[in-house]
Amino acid sequence: MIYFRADANGVIASGHIMRCITIALEFVKQEKEVTFLIADANPQILLERYKLSYRILNTDWENMESEINILNGFLNTTEDIVIVDSYMVTEAYMKALYTKVKTVYIEDHMKCPYNVDILINYNLYHFIFDYLGVYKKTETKLLLGAQYVPLREEFSSYHIKDYEVREKVNDVLVMCGGSDEKGFLKVFLNKLCHMKSLRFHVIVGAYNAYREEIKKRYDGQDNIYIYENINNISEIMAKCDVAISAAGNTLYELCAVGTPTIFFSYSDNQKYDDIGFTQNDIMLHAGNIDDGMETMIETMIVYINILADSREARIKMSKKMRDLVDGLGAARIVRSILEDEKNVNDTSA
């Protein structure tokens, strides 16, 4: 059995669970059985949408060590694989798993070296951490770099299509991840809804606390379109001329499509994204929301106008973005895990 240990809620949003879902669907294509281990019922809506099985542990998602005894009750075969994606892990937690089963850890920044069989960091900024040095004397297999970005199949197929950089900027995509406890979408729309020359396509996440308020105020307004629970986000990205997005995995999805992007840092775990995505003017970084939302939104307006004034700049940005990813990262991850599994089995035979 291949287990995924990840959570989603209004605090951590849905990024962790969504990238695990992407990898899980690739395992399913390989006819492998997968089950998600979740602390509580919050991620149910997402897992059921993709018809993936799950087991609710009824534990505290912030205290993962408290679930070790529960996991020990059913992780009892060397054929089990556990793929962990959480910032709440501890050295003791990972060591407990490692001594029982094959363990894979997906991380975005190095807090400390863990006992794992495979470690994944696909972010563009992975090079700022000394993975090769830290894990040099271990048997941990490292999967580093954008070739391992796990993108859903819709982005893999979209990558072979041409993104049309239109003459004029008319449609702007606005996203803020699965939640938005800081109220960015509400403030942004209040600031820009008067710009009737632009149509704003707004993705409201499943855990957005202001979802009903936003819908009530803006749904039906001529230049604002609200989307929820969508399964064709790549199509919406493709029809927009500019995207505004919080940092995170969504930036790689936008790269696969090629939509010129203005991004911002929303949480502390996104603080390194500007290192990777502003290199060579791949994207425009509007700042950190915690340094002042109003100032950040003003910077976004400036950047929208800059991109609107230059189709050539948008063409260059789109090409640089599409050159970064090919949408096959999930397949590479699955292949690496299964190849590693085969090698272990061959060795023990």
TrEMBL record:
**Pfam family membership, one:** Glyco_tran_28_C
List of catalytic residues: H16 (proton acceptor)
Key words of the record: Glycosyltransferase, Transferase
Q: Where does substrate bind?
A: R152, E253
- InterPro entries according to UniProt: Glyco_trans_28_C, PseG
Q: Glycosyl transferase family 28 C-terminal domain: which residues?
A: 173-269
Question: What GO terms are given for molecular function?
Answer: hexosyltransferase activity
Coiled-coil regions listed in the entry:
none
Its recorded name reads Undecaprenyldiphospho-muramoylpentapeptide beta-N-acetylglucosaminyltransferase
Q: Lineage of the source organism? A: Bacteria, Bacillati, Bacillota, Clostridia, Lachnospirales
